[in-house]
Every structure is written in structure tokens, then in C-alpha cells.
Known about the structure:
Layout: E1 3-6, H1 12-23, E2 27-32, H2 35-47, E3 52-56, H3 62-74, E4 81-84, H4 99-127, E5 129-135, H5 150-169, E6 175-181, H6 199-210, E7 221-223, E8 226-227
Parallel strand pairs: 1-2, 1-4, 2-3, 4-5, 5-6, 6-7
Antiparallel strand pairs: 7-8
Amino acid sequence: MRTALVTGANRGIGFAVAQALGRKGMRVVLTGRDAGSVQAAVESLRAEGMDAMGETIDLVSPESIRDCARRLDASGVEVHVLINNGAIEPSADALHATDEEIETTLRTNLLGAWYTCRAFVPAMIARGYGRVVNVSSDFGSFDRGLGGGAPYSVSKAALNALTVKLAQAIPQGVDVKVNCLNPGWVRTRMGGPDATKSPEEGAETVVWLATLPADGPHGGFFQDHEPLGW
């Protein structure tokens, strides 16, 4: 059985991704900062008969991520699929964003994904299989005009760059694929009630990238299965 670890999985797109992967027969590790909401999400999936477990992770802390990796390793849980979904979205512009908004957004949206990749991807390479999916945004796309608040936009543009650099770091011939995507405007706490997509619709391309065949794309940026301009 393959195992997928999803950050920010206690609600929204992350929960929808975990649910979809669980329904495909994967074990899912749901992670988030709040232990109570993570456990509630886990119990919801278990009620559907899925193999689900929860881990508390603070994405701004590399030690928190390393502790999670150590706990899973001690339990014999191998992570085959990593979904970097956890994120925050302050709306300030480049001149009015506070020190805390800038630092916390970059630490959460960029460095958190970098730390999780560093914690779990080497073992994927050693085993010869893995899928890494970074949930980005069209607000991180130069091609789309870098919309949204400055800290969020910059963090997602940097996440796209991390996706490319991580893909370049995978040895030739090893079936580990790294991609990112824009899920679209999704009805979540971040996207708001007027968004055009449900969480399940927002999760669909994530699930596609998480379950790519060996001849699937690597090092790309997608929306609704189609390549998106960087």
C-alpha cells in the first residue's frame, strides 16, 4: 500500500485531496498545526473505511517536520506521495506588508514545502518511486501577472522555482516526479464562498499529479491537467 502525506489536510483542498487518495486505496497521513482539527479530519475518513492517520506539523519549523519524519519512520510508514498544500495568504502589497506577514508567509508557503521535500524525497529516490505535488497558484505565475498580495504572490512564484530545482535534483531514470499546479479559485476559507470551484474540483488536478504513471510529466506547472505558463 502506498502512503500519501498531505500538509494542510484538516480542511479545504487538502482534506479533499486526502479523501480522494484514500478512496483510491492509499493510506493517507493528514497533517496540520491544530491537532484537534487534524484528528477530526482523520476520524471522518476512517468513518468511510479509509486507512488514515494524523500528524501535527508546523510548517515554519524544520524541526517539527523532521520530528514528523522520524515518527513515521519509527512506525514503519514510508511516504510515497507528498502533497505540499499548506499555505497562508495575507493580502498586503509590497510596501505595506509587515515583517511578520512577509516572514511567516515565506516560511509557510515556500520553506515549509522545501523542508518537507528535504525530509521525504531522499527516501523516495532510494526506493525508486515517488510523487511530489506542490499546490501553487496563478498568483505565482509571471505569465498571469503575479496577482494577489505581495507576500503570497512572491512565495508561490518561489514555490514554482523550487519545483523546477527539485525536479532537476532527481537522478535520471528514477521514477520520482515533481510538479506544481494552480487549483483555481476554490471555495475554501482562503478562497471565500463566491469561488467558482468546490474543494473536490480544486483537488482533482492534485490527485492526477499524485498518481501519474511512469511516463507522466515531470517539473511542470499545470491547471486542469493542462500546462500553465510560468
